[in-house]
User: Which sequence fits this backbone?
């Protein structure tokens, strides 16, 4: 076993979340990025040749593509100073009991409820950059559902994997999807067969926990015709002394009459760059719903999108962003109406505090011939003080006829009248403010499973603490 | 002896003085009515007493339990035992009435998230609610609704009185709780208020019209015109207003509501 590297923890983190768990690494690649490292990663994972080649090709694309400059400031990311592969333990655990105790301790402190664990259809808890724990509920297996980590999926379901991997988000899509394809590790893979409904949400917890390491998980979900699945990812991460990069790719295929909901609550530590590409293809009468909450990170750039490929397809994005001091949440959604009679909604709620900055960035594209489409965008921003900032950047490209397009945007402050009303009932100012903020994002919270709703309200409370003078 | 004492209170809104020296003493167990035409400063009085940040105190004192409450934040005033039933209850989206009532009750009891013994239990909460809901002719269905959101005028006012019943104040200010209510709703509200009447509660009932005073009998009636009391006395003052309205003070308004056609 390799020795434990010394990890410095921001004092803040300990105060805020009350824990930090030292960890053991089995393997840690060298810092930096070059073809040898990429080959080494692929070799370590014993991948088929096509994947090794795809990784190397993606690395080339990554190197050629310029850094995007249209959004948040990314110039401070030093790609040479990042570990591109870590493995927390050398074998996968089969049951919860087998989980390494320090990992269990982490989940305990995060308050993952006992009852919820029982519900977990298969826990896919990514620790460092690879899934260490995975257990598949019998029922799911019986129904033919595959829920596994992405590395195992490549090994165990090579044909299915190859058919879909990289088809929704090709490496050349953007600089960070190229990077992810070059060095991806971990993530979840889900296949739901025709007509199968997965009644309980499939959940994954993961976090990053090493200095200067990147997380490049890769998730691929295939909902076959008439199926349904709700996937939930949630995480909270320690604060480190140097910057950390998280750049995931999530690809989803929702076939005819199927429905997929993908829920995220991300609370990265405030030094993390969270640059995620999420995209779904929805076919005839299919529904894709992104429910996306971003609380942490230094910079988040994330615009879940849905390509509405066939008539009757429906896309929804419901997102919440919270930006505190030094944070920039650049989030939104994209709806690409390729086929006629497709509908989409984007609802974005943002909160800025202590000089934090939120941006809504959205793109509605309606292709020629995609007639009779409907799209509605609503963004509401709440500013908690005068130093904070919120902007909206909506882009619409409409090349079809008989299109209904709606856009509503509001920017507001915590209302004195509301605050006075709550305080007149004896509720202290800070608590009243927290209530109002939680009320503001309630349209989002009410879509979450109860435990997550409670956790989100608690996180907002933590974020709000000390915000009132 | 007065338990709640307003001494020469002066207050302004947006730089304009509205209250021009108001004095009033309330002992627990008493019901005082403040009557006045539109714009006379009734809500300015209620808001100033409760500490609304938009109302500036230019002078005077308000004493309650040995403290000058004007120095306290609104939440501290409430925890001290004051309550304001708003003329225009505020909509707060995303927070259920149940959550609001529970949080308010916990705050009132000094529960700060630590000492669980101060926390209201679900059982206690439900049983408290049940009785009060009945008196006000309300049902459970309003509990999951957001605070005052989409409430009718009558529902809002009843919800105010429900909050009062739950929080059990020692000084309650009811700002035009009767306005906009039909006669049945006024009766329900009055019944709920009368139930709370007793030696531990002083009430300041602010109204434009005499009608509510038929159901909640005041011990004292004060007439507020242009930010000053122009007349104070017993219930007979209300009778006088019933007949002549506010005309003696140059205001053309009557003290009886227009019958709704
Ligand atoms: N928030 C406010 N902003 C501006 N003017 C106000 C405000 N509140 C009250 N006023 C003014 O103060 C005067 C008294 O109003 P108010 O106290 O509401 O009277 P009442 O409740 O007796 O009808 C009115 O002229 C009103 O226009
Ligand atoms: Mg008024």
Assistant:
């Amino acid at each position: 076993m390799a020795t434990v590297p010394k990890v410095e923890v921001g004092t803040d983190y300990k105060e805020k979340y009350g824990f930090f768990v030292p960890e053991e690494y089995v393997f840690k690649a060298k810092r930096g990025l070059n073809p040898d490292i990429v080959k080494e990663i692929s070799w370590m994972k014993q991948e088929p040749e096509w994947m090794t080649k795809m990784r190397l090709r993606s690395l080339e694309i990554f190197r050629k593509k310029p850094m995007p400059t249209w959004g948040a400031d990314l110039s401070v990311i030093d790609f040479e100073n990042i570990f591109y592969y870590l493995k927390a333990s050398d074998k996968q655990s089969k049951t919860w009991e087998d989980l390494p105790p320090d990992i269990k301790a982490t989940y305990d402190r995060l308050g993952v409820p006992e009852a919820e664990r029982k519900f977990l259809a298969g826990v896919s808890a990514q620790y460092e950059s690879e899934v260490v724990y995975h257990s598949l509920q019998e029922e799911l297996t019986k129904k033919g559902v595959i829920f596994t980590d992405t590395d195992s999926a490549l090994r165990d379901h090579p044909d299915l994997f190859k058919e879909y991997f990289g088809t929704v988000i090709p490496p050349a899509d953007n600089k960070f999807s190229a990077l992810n394809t070059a060095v991806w590790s971990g993530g979840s893979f889900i296949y739901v067969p025709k007509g199968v409904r997965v009644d309980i949400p499939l959940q994954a917890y993961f976090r990053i926990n090493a200095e200067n390491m990147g997380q490049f998980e890769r998730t691929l979900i295939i909902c076959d015709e008439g199926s349904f699945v709700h996937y939930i990812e949630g995480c909270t991460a320690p604060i480190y002394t140097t910057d950390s990069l998280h750049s995931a790719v999530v690809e989803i295929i929702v076939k005819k009459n199927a429905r997929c909901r993908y829920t995220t609550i991300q609370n990265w530590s405030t030094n993390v760059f969270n640059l995620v590409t999420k995209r779904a293809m929805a076919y005839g009468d299919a529904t894709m719903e992104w429910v996306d909450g971003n609380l942490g990170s230094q910079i988040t750039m994330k615009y879940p999108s849905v390509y509405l490929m066939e008539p009757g397809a429906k896309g929804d994005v419901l997102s919440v962003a919270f930006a505190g001091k030094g944070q920039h949440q650049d989030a939104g959604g994209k709806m690409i109406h390729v086929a006629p009679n497709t509908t989409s909604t984007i609802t974005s709620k943002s909160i800025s505090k202590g000089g934090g900055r939120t941006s809504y960035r959205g793109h509605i594209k309606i292709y020629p011939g995609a007639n009779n489409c409907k799209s509605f965008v609503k963004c509401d921003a709440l500013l908690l003080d005068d130093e904070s900032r919120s902007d909206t950047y909506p882009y619409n490209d409409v090349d079809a006829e008989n299109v209904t397009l709606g856009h509503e945007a509001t920017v507001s402050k915590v209302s004195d009248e509301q605050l006075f009303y709550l305080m007149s009932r004896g509720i202290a100012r800070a608590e009243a403010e927290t209530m109002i903020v939680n009320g503001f994002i309630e349209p989002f919270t009410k879509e979450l499973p109860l435990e997550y709703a409670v956790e989100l309200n608690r996180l907002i409370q933590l974020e709000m603490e000390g915000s009132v003078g | 002896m007065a338990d709640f004492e307003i001494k020469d209170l002066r207050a302004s809104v947006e730089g304009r003085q509205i209250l021009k020296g108001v004095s009033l003493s309330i002992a627990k167990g008493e019901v005082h009515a403040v009557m006045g035409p539109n714009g006379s400063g009734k809500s300015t009085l209620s808001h100033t007493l409760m500490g609304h940040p938009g109302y500036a105190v230019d002078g005077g004192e308000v004493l309650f339990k040995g403290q000058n409450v004007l120095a306290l934040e609104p939440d501290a005033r409430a925890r001290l035992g004051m309550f304001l039933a708003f003329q225009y209850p505020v909509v707060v989206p995303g927070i259920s009435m149940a959550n609001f009532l529970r949080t308010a009750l916990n705050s009132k009891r000094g529960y700060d998230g630590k000492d669980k013994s101060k926390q209201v239990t679900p059982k206690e909460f439900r049983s408290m609610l049940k009785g009060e809901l009945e008196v006000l002719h309300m049902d459970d269905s309003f509990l999951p609704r957001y605070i005052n959101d989409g409430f009718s005028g009558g529902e809002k006012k009843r919800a105010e009185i429900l909050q009062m019943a739950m929080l059990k104040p020692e000084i309650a200010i009811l700002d035009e709780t009767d306005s906009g209510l039909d006669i049945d709703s006024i009766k329900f509200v009055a019944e709920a208020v009368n139930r709370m009447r007793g030696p531990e509660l002083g009430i300041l009932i602010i109204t434009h019209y005499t009608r509510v005073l038929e159901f909640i009998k005041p011990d004292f009636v004060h007439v507020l015109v242009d930010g000053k009391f122009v007349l104070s006395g017993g219930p007979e003052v209300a009778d006088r207003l019933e007949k002549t309205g506010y005309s003696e003070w140059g205001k053309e308004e009557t003290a009886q509501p227009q019958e709704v056609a």
